[in-house]
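Bit of a strange request maybe. I'm writing a small parser for C-alpha coordinate strings and I need a real example to test against, not something I typed by hand. Could someone generate the C-alpha coordinates for this chain?
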Amino acid sequence: MLTSLTLEREAPPTCVWMDAGVLTYRLCDRDLDCENCPLDLALHGASSLCAARRPGAIAPPRAQPSFPDDRIYFRGHTWLRPAGAEDRFRFGLDGFAGLLISPPRRIRAHVSPGPVRGGQTICTIHVEEGALAVGAPMDAEVLMWNDPLFEEPQRLAADPCGRGWLAELSVDGREAERAGSPAAGAADRARMDFRRFLRQAGRLLLLDHGADLASLCARGSATDLRRIIGGEAMLSLLREMIF
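Reply from user aminoacidic:
Good idea to test on real output. This should exercise your parser:
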Protein backbone atom coordinates (compact mmCIF):
# COMPACT_ATOMS: atom_id res chain seq x y z
CA MET A 1 0.00 0.00 0.00
CA LEU A 2 1.28 3.43 -0.87
CA THR A 3 2.13 5.77 1.96
CA SER A 4 2.71 9.51 1.84
CA LEU A 5 6.23 10.76 2.46
CA THR A 6 6.50 13.89 4.58
CA LEU A 7 8.84 16.73 3.71
CA GLU A 8 10.28 16.87 7.24
CA ARG A 9 12.24 13.84 8.38
CA GLU A 10 13.99 13.14 11.66
CA ALA A 11 16.42 10.73 9.95
CA PRO A 12 18.00 10.85 6.47
CA PRO A 13 15.84 9.20 3.80
CA THR A 14 16.88 5.92 2.26
CA CYS A 15 18.62 5.95 -1.11
CA VAL A 16 16.35 5.38 -4.12
CA TRP A 17 18.65 2.54 -5.20
CA MET A 18 17.99 0.83 -1.85
CA ASP A 19 14.24 1.24 -2.37
CA ALA A 20 14.69 -0.27 -5.83
CA GLY A 21 16.42 -3.34 -4.38
CA VAL A 22 19.81 -2.67 -5.99
CA LEU A 23 21.56 -1.79 -2.71
CA THR A 24 21.09 -3.65 0.57
CA TYR A 25 21.31 -0.57 2.79
CA ARG A 26 22.19 3.05 2.19
CA LEU A 27 20.94 6.36 3.55
CA CYS A 28 20.82 9.47 1.39
CA ASP A 29 23.06 12.35 2.50
CA ARG A 30 22.12 14.63 -0.42
CA ASP A 31 18.45 15.34 0.28
CA LEU A 32 17.44 13.10 -2.65
CA ASP A 33 19.38 15.23 -5.15
CA CYS A 34 19.94 12.21 -7.39
CA GLU A 35 20.98 14.24 -10.42
CA ASN A 36 24.17 15.38 -8.65
CA CYS A 37 24.92 12.21 -6.69
CA PRO A 38 28.20 10.42 -7.60
CA LEU A 39 26.71 7.05 -6.66
CA ASP A 40 23.70 7.58 -8.88
CA LEU A 41 25.91 8.63 -11.79
CA ALA A 42 28.19 5.63 -11.26
CA LEU A 43 25.32 3.14 -11.11
CA HIS A 44 23.75 4.64 -14.21
CA GLY A 45 26.95 4.99 -16.17
CA ALA A 46 29.18 2.10 -15.10
CA SER A 47 26.66 -0.62 -14.41
CA SER A 48 25.68 -2.91 -17.25
CA LEU A 49 22.14 -2.70 -15.92
CA CYS A 50 21.83 0.90 -17.11
CA ALA A 51 24.38 1.27 -19.87
CA ALA A 52 21.85 3.13 -21.95
CA ARG A 53 20.19 5.56 -19.54
CA ARG A 54 16.92 7.11 -20.53
CA PRO A 55 15.69 10.02 -18.38
CA GLY A 56 12.06 8.91 -18.56
CA ALA A 57 12.66 5.27 -17.59
CA ILE A 58 10.87 5.40 -14.24
CA ALA A 59 9.71 8.99 -14.08
CA PRO A 60 8.11 11.71 -16.18
CA PRO A 61 10.36 13.87 -18.38
CA ARG A 62 12.43 16.34 -16.36
CA ALA A 63 11.11 19.41 -18.09
CA GLN A 64 11.23 22.64 -16.15
CA PRO A 65 7.73 23.70 -15.07
CA SER A 66 6.98 27.39 -14.94
CA PHE A 67 6.11 29.13 -11.66
CA PRO A 68 5.11 32.73 -12.47
CA ASP A 69 5.74 35.08 -9.56
CA ASP A 70 2.42 36.93 -9.93
CA ARG A 71 0.45 34.41 -7.86
CA ILE A 72 0.24 32.51 -4.57
CA TYR A 73 0.90 28.76 -4.50
CA PHE A 74 -0.55 26.06 -2.27
CA ARG A 75 0.06 22.45 -1.32
CA GLY A 76 -1.48 20.13 -3.83
CA HIS A 77 0.08 22.22 -6.62
CA THR A 78 -2.64 24.80 -6.99
CA TRP A 79 -2.42 28.61 -7.23
CA LEU A 80 -4.41 31.82 -6.84
CA ARG A 81 -3.73 34.88 -8.97
CA PRO A 82 -5.38 38.31 -8.50
CA ALA A 83 -8.11 38.83 -11.09
CA GLY A 84 -8.71 42.57 -10.95
CA ALA A 85 -11.22 43.28 -8.22
CA GLU A 86 -10.18 43.13 -4.58
CA ASP A 87 -10.25 39.60 -3.13
CA ARG A 88 -11.09 38.13 -6.56
CA PHE A 89 -8.62 35.48 -7.74
CA ARG A 90 -8.23 33.00 -10.55
CA PHE A 91 -7.57 29.43 -9.41
CA GLY A 92 -5.68 26.68 -11.20
CA LEU A 93 -3.03 23.96 -11.16
CA ASP A 94 0.67 24.80 -11.32
CA GLY A 95 3.18 23.82 -14.00
CA PHE A 96 4.36 20.75 -12.10
CA ALA A 97 0.85 19.34 -12.03
CA GLY A 98 0.51 20.14 -15.73
CA LEU A 99 3.59 18.00 -16.46
CA LEU A 100 2.40 15.04 -14.40
CA ILE A 101 -1.14 14.64 -15.65
CA SER A 102 -2.00 13.20 -19.02
CA PRO A 103 -4.15 15.46 -21.22
CA PRO A 104 -7.54 15.65 -19.47
CA ARG A 105 -10.47 14.02 -21.18
CA ARG A 106 -13.10 15.88 -19.19
CA ILE A 107 -13.38 18.37 -16.34
CA ARG A 108 -16.44 18.25 -14.12
CA ALA A 109 -17.52 20.97 -11.70
CA HIS A 110 -18.81 19.61 -8.39
CA VAL A 111 -20.20 22.84 -6.96
CA SER A 112 -22.28 25.69 -8.26
CA PRO A 113 -21.17 29.28 -7.72
CA GLY A 114 -21.30 29.89 -3.99
CA PRO A 115 -19.31 29.30 -0.77
CA VAL A 116 -16.95 26.34 -0.35
CA ARG A 117 -14.76 25.18 2.51
CA GLY A 118 -11.01 24.77 2.29
CA GLY A 119 -10.19 21.27 1.04
CA GLN A 120 -13.70 20.69 -0.31
CA THR A 121 -13.69 19.07 -3.75
CA ILE A 122 -14.81 21.66 -6.25
CA CYS A 123 -14.02 19.84 -9.47
CA THR A 124 -12.63 16.57 -10.83
CA ILE A 125 -10.18 16.20 -13.69
CA HIS A 126 -10.78 13.03 -15.67
CA VAL A 127 -7.51 11.75 -17.13
CA GLU A 128 -6.48 8.47 -18.73
CA GLU A 129 -6.08 6.76 -15.35
CA GLY A 130 -9.28 8.00 -13.72
CA ALA A 131 -10.54 11.05 -11.85
CA LEU A 132 -8.41 13.48 -9.82
CA ALA A 133 -10.27 15.53 -7.23
CA VAL A 134 -9.20 19.16 -6.86
CA GLY A 135 -10.09 20.91 -3.63
CA ALA A 136 -10.43 24.56 -2.73
CA PRO A 137 -7.12 25.84 -1.31
CA MET A 138 -8.96 27.69 1.48
CA ASP A 139 -12.43 28.90 2.41
CA ALA A 140 -13.75 30.72 -0.65
CA GLU A 141 -16.71 31.54 -2.82
CA VAL A 142 -16.84 30.20 -6.36
CA LEU A 143 -17.71 33.11 -8.62
CA MET A 144 -17.46 31.53 -12.07
CA TRP A 145 -15.92 28.66 -14.00
CA ASN A 146 -13.59 28.87 -16.98
CA ASP A 147 -16.20 27.65 -19.47
CA PRO A 148 -13.81 27.43 -22.48
CA LEU A 149 -11.68 24.98 -20.47
CA PHE A 150 -14.62 22.62 -20.08
CA GLU A 151 -14.97 22.62 -23.88
CA GLU A 152 -11.21 22.14 -24.43
CA PRO A 153 -9.93 20.34 -21.31
CA GLN A 154 -6.52 19.69 -22.89
CA ARG A 155 -5.72 23.36 -22.16
CA LEU A 156 -5.16 22.35 -18.54
CA ALA A 157 -2.11 20.23 -19.35
CA ALA A 158 -0.88 22.47 -22.17
CA ASP A 159 -1.14 25.83 -20.35
CA PRO A 160 -1.99 25.30 -16.66
CA CYS A 161 -0.79 28.75 -15.57
CA GLY A 162 -2.52 30.53 -18.43
CA ARG A 163 -5.60 29.52 -20.41
CA GLY A 164 -5.94 26.37 -18.31
CA TRP A 165 -7.19 28.15 -15.17
CA LEU A 166 -10.14 26.43 -13.50
CA ALA A 167 -12.31 29.03 -11.78
CA GLU A 168 -12.50 32.48 -10.28
CA LEU A 169 -12.86 32.59 -6.51
CA SER A 170 -13.50 35.22 -3.90
CA VAL A 171 -11.07 34.78 -0.99
CA ASP A 172 -9.49 36.88 1.72
CA GLY A 173 -6.33 38.08 -0.01
CA ARG A 174 -4.35 38.61 3.17
CA GLU A 175 -5.29 35.17 4.47
CA ALA A 176 -4.30 33.67 1.12
CA GLU A 177 -0.83 35.23 1.40
CA ARG A 178 -0.41 33.81 4.89
CA ALA A 179 -1.58 30.32 3.87
CA GLY A 180 0.29 30.07 0.58
CA SER A 181 3.84 30.49 -0.64
CA PRO A 182 5.63 32.48 -3.37
CA ALA A 183 7.00 31.05 -6.61
CA ALA A 184 10.36 30.05 -5.11
CA GLY A 185 8.64 27.97 -2.44
CA ALA A 186 6.41 26.33 -5.04
CA ALA A 187 9.43 25.40 -7.15
CA ASP A 188 11.13 23.84 -4.12
CA ARG A 189 7.98 21.87 -3.32
CA ALA A 190 7.81 20.63 -6.92
CA ARG A 191 11.41 19.41 -6.80
CA MET A 192 10.75 17.51 -3.58
CA ASP A 193 7.50 16.05 -4.87
CA PHE A 194 9.22 14.97 -8.08
CA ARG A 195 11.72 13.00 -6.00
CA ARG A 196 8.87 11.49 -4.01
CA PHE A 197 7.22 10.51 -7.29
CA LEU A 198 10.46 8.91 -8.50
CA ARG A 199 10.87 6.90 -5.31
CA GLN A 200 7.28 5.68 -5.27
CA ALA A 201 7.24 4.81 -8.99
CA GLY A 202 10.54 2.96 -8.73
CA ARG A 203 9.30 0.97 -5.74
CA LEU A 204 6.13 -0.02 -7.57
CA LEU A 205 7.94 -0.99 -10.75
CA LEU A 206 10.70 -3.00 -9.13
CA LEU A 207 8.88 -4.60 -6.22
CA ASP A 208 5.21 -4.90 -7.09
CA HIS A 209 5.78 -5.94 -10.70
CA GLY A 210 8.86 -8.12 -10.34
CA ALA A 211 10.76 -6.09 -12.91
CA ASP A 212 14.52 -5.67 -12.72
CA LEU A 213 16.48 -2.50 -13.38
CA ALA A 214 17.77 -3.71 -16.73
CA SER A 215 14.29 -4.20 -18.15
CA LEU A 216 13.22 -0.77 -16.93
CA CYS A 217 16.13 0.95 -18.64
CA ALA A 218 15.56 -1.01 -21.83
CA ARG A 219 11.86 -0.28 -22.02
CA GLY A 220 11.80 3.12 -20.46
CA SER A 221 9.84 6.00 -21.79
CA ALA A 222 7.65 8.43 -19.89
CA THR A 223 4.45 7.03 -21.34
CA ASP A 224 5.52 3.44 -20.54
CA LEU A 225 5.21 4.21 -16.83
CA ARG A 226 1.43 4.36 -17.02
CA ARG A 227 1.24 1.10 -18.93
CA ILE A 228 3.72 -0.83 -16.75
CA ILE A 229 2.34 -0.02 -13.31
CA GLY A 230 -1.28 0.25 -14.41
CA GLY A 231 -3.86 2.98 -14.21
CA GLU A 232 -4.87 2.41 -10.60
CA ALA A 233 -1.30 2.67 -9.29
CA MET A 234 -0.56 5.69 -11.45
CA LEU A 235 -3.69 7.39 -10.20
CA SER A 236 -2.63 6.75 -6.59
CA LEU A 237 0.72 8.42 -7.29
CA LEU A 238 -0.97 11.41 -8.90
CA ARG A 239 -3.37 11.80 -5.98
CA GLU A 240 -0.42 12.04 -3.58
CA MET A 241 0.84 15.06 -5.52
CA ILE A 242 -2.29 16.81 -6.78
CA PHE A 243 -5.30 17.44 -4.54
